[in-house]
Amino acid sequence: MPWRRRPFRGSDFARATNIADLREIARRKVPNFIFEYVEGGAEDEATLRHNRAALEALRFVPRTLVDTTARHQRIELFGRECAAPLIVAPTGGNGMVHPLGDLALARAAASAGIPFCLSTVSTVRLERVAAEAGGRLWMQLYVMDDRKVAEDIVTRAAAAGFEALVFTTDANVFGSREWDRRNYRRPGKPTARNVLDALRHPRWLYEVLLRRGVPQLENLAAFLPAGGASALGGSTIIPKLFGPSITWDDVRWLRRIWRGKLLVKGVLGVEDAERAAELGCDGIVLTNHGGRQLDYCVSAIDVLPQIAQAVGGRLTLLVDGGFRRGSDVIKALALGARGVMLGRATLYGLTAAGERGVRRALEILTSEIDRTLGQLGCRSVADVGPHLLHGSSARGA
Ligand SMILES: Cc1cc2nc3c(=O)[nH]c(=O)nc-3n(C[C@H](O)[C@H](O)[C@H](O)COP(=O)(O)O)c2cc1C
């Protein structure tokens, strides 16, 4: 018998052995244009590909003969214990892949003992997530030209008890996700081919669009014109909401009006990281927005060593972009990150099987982190450092 390997073809999320398997289930579960919205990047998708390539290029040098029987992956994050070095990243339009997707993500994060960050452009209102999900909740903020919108979100998030505000700064000018845009005749109007594809996914059609009506950008409803809050439209709808006028003055302003933890999401340069520290931020997220904004951009992992060296003692450093394996997470910790934000990895779980799918994604990643720690000879993330990465101390990490 010739030796043959067959890629995962199942539909049972519980049998997914890794994030790629969950992605495969997710891909088949929803119409192509919905998957494209989650999956795609901007322009040539060079940033998107580089996020994976940069992580894959790093190689471990393990320590051997260390007793790792009693290992764990807990970390301290903003003065509180976190069960794993993971945070669910803010993603908009989650209701398009699964009904009440934000709630499902938040609940799965809570049961895994990690924070969940809700997007400004979520499809469940922030107050409802706070009331029904539990766990540690962070609020992502897009500041639009009309600053009243941001003020409203900040006030409501404070009243609802959100722990942290994550100001996203890399979508001031919206990225051109060309593959996504091609799926629409006009903003919010899928092409005939995509309408047919939706009809070929009756379960998705019923659960996502018909049962409760088309998901809406609930947090912004009061500020959008009637009919303008629909989440159907992928990247063709959201760009209209952003303006290029945001500056460091907005960080100063937010620092004055927000008492909780403040993070800037969108920093990739040492000078910007220093500035965030000087303005009293608590942390930064090194990110290129999952390859959906600036194309031909560096990845967080490329610049993490220099930024950790400059501000690691003053700011909590989080990273994201392309994290699909527990070993990826350990690489980021080795280079100075406190934790990793998960975008698509948990969205694949959500798309595949709702809350249970997200739990499965987190279970997969935490078991991979645990295994990697053990194989590297580490008892906890405190033992992880640049010495475990080939050539990284030579790069100045
Ligand atoms: C479908 C989708 C929607 C997103 N929406 C937002 C958002 O509303 N706000 C934000 O700050 N980042 C958003 N992001 C970026 C993520 O927070 C995160 O930076 C990125 O997904 C990380 O890369 P990864 O998907 O490869 O893990 C989105 C990403 C995806 C994939």
Tags for this entry?
12 strands, eight-stranded parallel beta sheet, binds flavin mononucleotide, globular, two-stranded antiparallel ribbon, 14 helices, TIM Barrel, 397 residues, alpha/beta
Question: Could you walk me through the main structural features you see in this protein, from its secondary elements to its overall organization?
Answer:
The protein is an alpha/beta fold. It has one domain: Aldolase class I (TIM Barrel, Alpha-Beta Barrel), CATH 3.20.20. It is built from 14 helices and 12 strands. The protein has helices at residues 19-29, 32-39, 46-56, 101-112, 126-133, 147-159, 178-181, 192-199, 202-210, 248-257, 270-278, 300-311, 326-334, 344-376; strands spanning 75-77, 80-82, 86-88, 116-118, 137-141, 164-168, 184-186, 189-190, 261-267, 283-286, 316-320, 339-342. The strands form 3 sheets. Strands 3-12-11-10-9-6-5-4 form an 8-stranded parallel beta sheet. A two-stranded antiparallel ribbon has the order 1-2. α4 packs parallel to α5 (126-133) and α11 packs across α12. 52% of the residues are buried. The model has no long low-confidence stretch (mean pLDDT 95). The chain binds flavin mononucleotide (FMN).
